[in-house]
C-alpha cells in the first residue's frame, strides 16, 4: 500500500515537473511569449459587436468606432467617447446620424465637438493586456476619467495591433508604433495640443505609454502631455514574470527565480523586454534637462494579485532618482517617505515629490485589485489634478 502511494506520488511529481519543463521550453519561443505577455487572443467580448457600443451601455452615437492607420500599414480599431453632458446637449443631432463603424470620422458631429472646442480636453487611453476596448472594467473606467468635467473631457481608446478588430500581430515595437499613430491622429487630425491631453494607462498599457512619452519628450520641439496616470504598472518584463501568478495563485517563473543563474539564462530569451523603469527615468531626466514641465501619478492597489504593488515603489524611485542631478538613494527616499507620506487610513497612502519642473506622485491603495480600481474616484481625481495644473481655469 505504502509502496503504491509512493509510486503514484512520484509519477505525479514527475508529471508536474515535466509539464513545467515543457512550459519553460515554450516560453523561449517568441510566438508563445507573445500570447503569454499580450493575451491578445483572449477577447472577452466574443458575443458582442465592438461596432455597436450601445451593447456595452453607451447611448446611441455617444461612442464612434473608427479606424486609425499606422505608419507601417496596420489598421487600429478606435473608439471616441463623448462626455455625457456634452452628449446630452447635442443628443438630437447625434442620434440622427447613422450608427456603427464610421469610415470618415472627420465628417461626424462628434469629431467637430472635439476639434472645434478650444476648451475640450482629451484622455488618451492605453488599456492593458487581453481583451478589447470594451472588456471588463474598461467601460466604467472611461466614465471615471471623464467624470471630473462631464461636459469637456473626451476619451480616445483603441485596440493595439492583434487585439480586437485591429489588424496585425503584437510586438513591443509594433505597440509603440500604434501609440505613435494614435498620438499623431489626435494632435494633427483632431488638432488637440499636448497641453490638453492626459494619458491614462493601466497594466500593459503603462509600458506602452511610458515608451511613447519617453520618445516624444526627446523630439525637437519636445512633446509632453498635461499629465500621465499609470495604474498597476510593472518595472519591466523580467521583473514581472519573476513575480507574476496566474489568477494570483499559480506562479509562472517565480520558482525559477529561486535559481538566479537559471533565471538569468532564461531572460536572454525574452523578446519584448518593456524596460519601463529605465524609460521612465529617461523621460524624467529629459524633461528636467529641457526645463519642461511634466506630471506623473503612479497608482497601485496592495491587493493586486496580477501585478504585485511592489512594482510601483520601484518605478517611483527610478523617476525620483532621475529628477535630481545627484540622484537619491532608495534609503534616502524611504526616509523622505516616512517624513512626508500622507497616511489616509483604509484609503491607503500618497507621496508627492516635486522639483522645479516636475511632480511625481505615488498612491498606494489598500484595496482595488488589478482592474476594479480603474472605476474608483481616485482616477477621476488624478485626471482632474493634471488638467487643472495645466490650466487653473479648467473647472466644472
Automatic annotation (TrEMBL):
SUPFAM superfamilies to which the protein is assigned, alphabetical: alpha/beta-Hydrolases
Keyword Endoplasmic reticulum attributed: no
Keyword Transmembrane listed: yes
Alphabetically ordered keywords of this record: Membrane, Transmembrane, Transmembrane helix
Membrane-spanning segments: 6-27
Sequence ranges assigned to domain AB hydrolase-1 in this UniProt record: 123-302
Xref: Gene3D superfamilies: alpha/beta hydrolase
PANTHER family the UniProt entry points to: ALPHA/BETA HYDROLASE DOMAIN-CONTAINING PROTEIN, PROTEIN ABHD13
Name recorded for this polypeptide: AB hydrolase-1 domain-containing protein
Organism: Sporothrix eucalyptigena
Amino acid at each position: 500500500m505504502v509502496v503504491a502511494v509512493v509510486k503514484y506520488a512520484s509519477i505525479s511529481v514527475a508529471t508536474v515537473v515535466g509539464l513545467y519543463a515543457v512550459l519553460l521550453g515554450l516560453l523561449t519561443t517568441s510566438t508563445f511569449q507573445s500570447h503569454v505577455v499580450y493575451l491578445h487572443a483572449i477577447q472577452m467580448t466574443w458575443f458582442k459587436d465592438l461596432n455597436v457600443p450601445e451593447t456595452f451601455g453607451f447611448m446611441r452615437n455617444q461612442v464612434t468606432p473608427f479606424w486609425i492607420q499606422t505608419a507601417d500599414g496596420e489598421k487600429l480599431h478606435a473608439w471616441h467617447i463623448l462626455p455625457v453632458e456634452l452628449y446630452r446637449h447635442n443628443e438630437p443631432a447625434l442620434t440622427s446620424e447613422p450608427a456603427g463603424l464610421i469610415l470618415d470620422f472627420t465628417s461626424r458631429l462628434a469629431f467637430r465637438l472635439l476639434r472645434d472646442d478650444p476648451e475640450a480636453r482629451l484622455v488618451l487611453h492605453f488599456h492593458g493586456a487581453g481583451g478589447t476596448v470594451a472588456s471588463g472594467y474598461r467601460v466604467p473606467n472611461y466614465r471615471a476619467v471623464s467624470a471630473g468635467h462631464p461636459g469637456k473631457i473626451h476619451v480616445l481608446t483603441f485596440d493595439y495591433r492583434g487585439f480586437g478588430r485591429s489588424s496585425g500581430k503584437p510586438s513591443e515595437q509594433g505597440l509603440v508604433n500604434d501609440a505613435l499613430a494614435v498620438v499623431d491622429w489626435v494632435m494633427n487630425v483632431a488638432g488637440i495640443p499636448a497641453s490638453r491631453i492626459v494619458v491614462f494607462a493601466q497594466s500593459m498599457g503603462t509600458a506602452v505609454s511610458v515608451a511613447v512619452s519617453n520618445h516624444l519628450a526627446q523630439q525637437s520641439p519636445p512633446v509632453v502631455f498635461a499629465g500621465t496616470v499609470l495604474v498597476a504598472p510593472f518595472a519591466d518584463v523580467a521583473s514581472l514574470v519573476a513575480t507574476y501568478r496566474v489568477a494570483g495563485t499559480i506562479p509562472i517563473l517565480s520558482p525559477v527565480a529561486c535559481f538566479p543563474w537559471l533565471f538569468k539564462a532564461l531572460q536572454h530569451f525574452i523578446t519584448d523586454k518593456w524596460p519601463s523603469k529605465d524609460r521612465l527615468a529617461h523621460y524624467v531626466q529629459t524633461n528636467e534637462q529641457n526645463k519642461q514641465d511634466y506630471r506623473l501619478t503612479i497608482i497601485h492597489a496592495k491587493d493586486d494579485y496580477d501585478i504585485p504593488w511592489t512594482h510601483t515603489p520601484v518605478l517611483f524611485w527610478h523617476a525620483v532618482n532621475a529628477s535630481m542631478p545627484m540622484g537619491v538613494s532608495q534609503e534616502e527616499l524611504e526616509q523622505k517617505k516616512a517624513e512626508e507620506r500622507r497616511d489616509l487610513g483604509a484609503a491607503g497612502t500618497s507621496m508627492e515629490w516635486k522639483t522645479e519642473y516636475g511632480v511625481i506622485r505615488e498612491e498606494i491603495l489598500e484595496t482595488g485589485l488589478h482592474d476594479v480600481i480603474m472605476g474608483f474616484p481616485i482616477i477621476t481625481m488624478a485626471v482632474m489634478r493634471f488638467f487643472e495644473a495645466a490650466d487653473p481655469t479648467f473647472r466644472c
